[in-house]
């Protein structure tokens, strides 16, 4: 079957773009209209994406197209789009979550006076993210990569009058930019090392796939690691994760869309897209695996000690992205993408649920909530499904994708398998803590909580359904896995169907939840059992291992110091020399002025002195 | 119709028409004076658009050339070589356009119009302001179109004088000091430039003209002639020493070439500005009226880079290439030094001044790459930075009108009372920090891409600038527009139409270049093809 819809895939990002342009041009005065425009744009994009996905799931051919962006000398830089199986899957994830968030925001942002600006930004983000997903080459991807970053910046700082929002927006932009520079250098390297300066993914695949030796191994490793640096920045991996929790200053629907489901997964997507480079270098693969694994456990431990509902979820996102990276680093492209896919739904669900809660109780501190389960039934049920999916309890989607990763880990690297298990345990624990503190027990909130309106609960229900079902696209038993074979056509797919791993991971998840129940519901174990014995540890976790403080002391302060020192150099030395030169000229001039002050006496004196000198010289020479 | 006329001269001198009208207008009719001046800046813009539309990149604009003798001086007849009847020194009126100058002419015409619109904030002596303003435009256009060294020099000096008065009379509190520093520092640069030009004319500026019964040797600053003399080993100047039996003191040795190249590097380096010759421009940025800073930062600085390319690089590619590392190091210093200083400024105008230093460093990087990608990146960066800094100072002007200050600590939260202007400021800042989709990215990316081929480590160091730029731009822009707003700003009105139009126009060009860079790179292509081919032919690619 030929591709019918895939060749029109370029239209998909165009609808949100048009929506953005319309809203920016006319939106400020027309609130309702801009919402409708944004909603329509994202709906059309969603429907087209679904058509493309179905076509690709059938026998539709992959499709790519490009045009020359610039011709310089004999080199051409191109922009292009490409529809592959992976791309079409991402298209649906992005447009679906985007549409649901659009819908949800109608309720959540209802009273905000800048709601049309908000919708404009979301449309711009959706456009950029779709562009990123569809990119046919690295340059195109870099362009959209930066654009999604700027949208994230704009939306984090949406409530711009709050100093925290301003600081968070700035931090998000700058920290991710550090990663972006890595990606940029990787592109420069690829450009000069690839045959014909090609940057498109197809050529990259060809060059690195068989490891034909066109590009030396050292360079390959370097390129892969630099690309990964970009991914580390965007996907909040250690040590560039610090921006993501702060980014929670943005409106909650944004956290769901950008900082959980789509943009932060772009790093994972990038690695997947350039996977052949990584596969050509074991060193790079190890880097990815270990950084991912470390991030997974590192962030999960922080998540236990936080009290802000959104920050807990943010650290959970960091941790889960680490999981995905670990999967990629261990050689399981399917595992990484599978987890990206399921995570997008259950994490978006959790964030939107959190938004629903915040909407009701006007606080983000879980210590000030409690007992909301009876007042917000839909929110509680859907949130519970999301939490179970995240904790890896069967049959929810997170279980299947986590299982795929853990089985790969067991096969390749037992150490990372253990790390993954421990992280899974902490994940279950902090989710249990969060869930029980918020929904069970006595109410500690002053607000009269009530269920959110339908525009907010419907997206929750849709996402909850997906959080249950999304895992079934890839079951660990032979013959039941669809995703792996589809993502990697032509490659042999190994199914690790290890019942042992399933049992262990379920047990670990259940243990975490049980422990949480014991502490936060039953009270069998005191809440400060740890903090009373090792207060330093709790403090360390609460302060997030002092990473922010470290960066402040090691980077921010010295940089500012250098700036101020250079300011002194500029003012006193460089400009000082300039002023001195000028002054010297003036002094010379002054001396000259004194010689010609118009007084005959002076002239007479000078003449006399000159005469005497002359006589002395002439006479003196005679007697010499 | 236009094709038969001397278009380049028309473009250059069309603002004079405005001056002529202004002279007959009463000096207190500010509105009338403003409208006239704005209309006068429209003329060269329209003509330049026509030029752009009729310019064929493959040919390189040769059909627009204008050449005639301006002044002819006979020189020392006593030492005639055998067979030569006269020696002449000739100043020519020679105008030409190619891929390098066309974008800059367009930039000049565009920024001038926008600056004329921004001059609505000028409060006194409108008539003389606009006369100087239009003279300045003539000078700038002339600089980019002149193809004779002396003619170039005259236009170049015209811009100095006009700018001097514009700063000294209409500037802020310390305007006279700033104007003096500007004039003296730049005058010094001009002196070095003149020295270089004279040396060049006296050595490489020779042509042999033979008619039926006369044979003259003519010294001139004809650019094409210089170019062919310097690049063609068979050219007269290169074989003449033997012909004259070693008598010619003006022999074009390698030493002379190096001396001229270094003189040019310093002369135009001051203008660019290259560290450590940058301190003069700080005062200009803070003291000159914003409309003039738009021109200063948008166009005048570009004259430095243009001069360096046109005379330093194109005429002495071998010397320049040998010094490529020096240029690249200077570029990196500019980038990092400018960015670090921009990070600690309290005055927004100084942030922008240091940011200009940083961004001009990128131009040096592109030049130092000596491949087409980098060189095109350098010119792209010139045009892009011209547009972006013009836009930024346009906003500064409008901001100052309302707040009475541009000190960052005194500002804040302006997005609330002025959402439109704050939005434009944010986008301009994004363009400045090289966001893809806006013009700044292309220049930066191409320059880095070009340099990476030859100097990997320097390029990597330069990319630190990419991060630092984000830091200082966001620091300044967010401090001004985000956060809580002081009470006294609550009544401020957003941009008026006359302010909004130039902002949107500049932004439109910034977006156009960012989204579809071919409009510019295709124009540049030919000129750099020629240069690179020449270079490769002589020193080997």
From TrEMBL, chain A:
Instruction: Report the residue ranges that make up the NADH-Ubiquinone oxidoreductase (complex I) chain 5 N-terminal domain in this protein.
Output: 69-119
Q: Which keywords fit this entry according to its UniProt record?
A: Membrane, Transmembrane, Transmembrane helix
Q: Where is the signal peptide?
A: none
Where does this protein chiefly localize? Answer: membrane
Every copy of the NADH:quinone oxidoreductase/Mrp antiporter transmembrane domain together lies at 135-427
> Which stretches are transmembrane?
6-27, 34-54, 83-104, 116-135, 141-160, 172-194, 214-233, 254-275, 287-305, 312-331, 337-358, 378-396, 416-439, 460-488, 500-521, 600-620
For membrane topology, the record states: Multi-pass membrane protein
Task: From the UniProt record, give one GO term of the biological process aspect.
Answer: ATP synthesis coupled electron transport
Q: Where in the cell is it found?
A: Cell membrane; Membrane
Q: Name one GO molecular function term.
A: NADH dehydrogenase (ubiquinone) activity
Please provide, in alphabetical order, the Gene Ontology terms of the cellular component aspect for this entry: plasma membrane
Looking at the keywords, is Cytoplasm present?
no
Cited Gene3D superfamilies:
1.20.5.2700
Q: Is this entry keyworded Membrane?
A: yes
Alphabetized InterPro entries for the sequence = NADHpl_OxRdtase_5_subgr, ND/Mrp_TM, NU5C-like, Proton_antipo_N
- Its domain of life reads Bacteria
Assigned protein family: Belongs to the CPA3 antiporters (TC 2.A.63) subunit A family.
Report the protein name in the record. NADH-quinone oxidoreductase subunit L
UniProtKB/TrEMBL annotation, chain B:
- Spell out the molecular function terms from Gene Ontology: NADH dehydrogenase (ubiquinone) activity; NADH dehydrogenase activity; ubiquinone binding
- Primary residence: membrane
What membrane topology does the annotation report for this chain?
A: Multi-pass membrane protein
Keywords from UniProt, A to Z, are: Membrane, NAD, Translocase, Transmembrane, Transmembrane helix
List residues of the NADH:quinone oxidoreductase/Mrp antiporter transmembrane domain: 146-469
Record-annotated NADH:ubiquinone oxidoreductase chain 4 N-terminal domain positions: 85-136
Q: Where are its TM segments located?
A: 6-25, 32-53, 100-122, 129-146, 152-173, 185-209, 258-278, 299-317, 323-344, 351-370, 382-400, 420-442, 457-485, 497-516
Query: Got a GO cellular component term for this one?
Result: plasma membrane
User: What name goes with this protein?
Assistant: NADH-quinone oxidoreductase subunit M
**Transcription as UniProt keyword:** no
Which family does the record claim for this protein? Answer: Belongs to the complex I subunit 4 family.
One biological process term from GO is: ATP synthesis coupled electron transport
Fetch the PANTHER family from UniProt: NADH-UBIQUINONE OXIDOREDUCTASE CHAIN 4
Endpoints of the signal sequence: none
Annotated source species: Paenibacillus abyssi
Subcellular location(s) per record: Cell membrane; Membrane
